[in-house]
Amino acid sequence: TQLNSSWDRLRTLxxxxxxxxxxxxxxxxxxxxxxxxxxxxPVEAPVRLLDVIAMEPVKPETAVIGLSDAxxxxxxPLNQGHVLISGISxxxxxxxxxxxxxxxxxxNRPSRLxxxxxxxxxxxxxxxxELEPLSVLPHLSANIDxxxxxxxxxxxxxxxxxxxRLRLAETSPTIVVMIDHVxxxxxxxxxxxxxx
Length: 196
Known about the structure:
Elements: H1 2-21, E1 26-31, E2 34-39, H2 49-55, E3 62-67, E4 73-77, H3 93-107, E5 113-118, H4 127-131, H5 148-168, E6 174-179, H6 182-189, H7 191-195
Parallel strand pairs: 5-6
Antiparallel strand pairs: 1-2, 3-4
């Protein structure tokens, strides 16, 4: 059929492009009537947080999350509000959370910024192993929460803290809340988590 013929030509074009560019992979998608071609990097290299921070000054309440394709720091200002990091298992979401927490700690004093990390351990996830080194940060408002049962208490405390700050209108440190495995937490924690 014509569809199979078009698919075969597209697959051949993808393979030809991959070999011509010497890259490990290329994906071609169609969106809004346009073809989009994504080219994988030929070589993956680790990105060291301290090296990226040393490239340029980081403003307070801004996280460094990596390097762009051009080798420039990619910054995440906290004034953007909520940030959702999604991806399949093993994609590096917990590592990204750890990098954000470390970056914020390196560019802010504890008197200016506090962090709350909720990272319940489910099955085989390695949140504990990846996040436990953060437990020594003076920026933590409380211990890292790995227990589903404690998560509702942490969230209730945060809501109470926000209400107190609004009522008193005092200058207080910014509190950054990071939740790993938020969907699993809501499902496993049920009503107390959802209400919190």
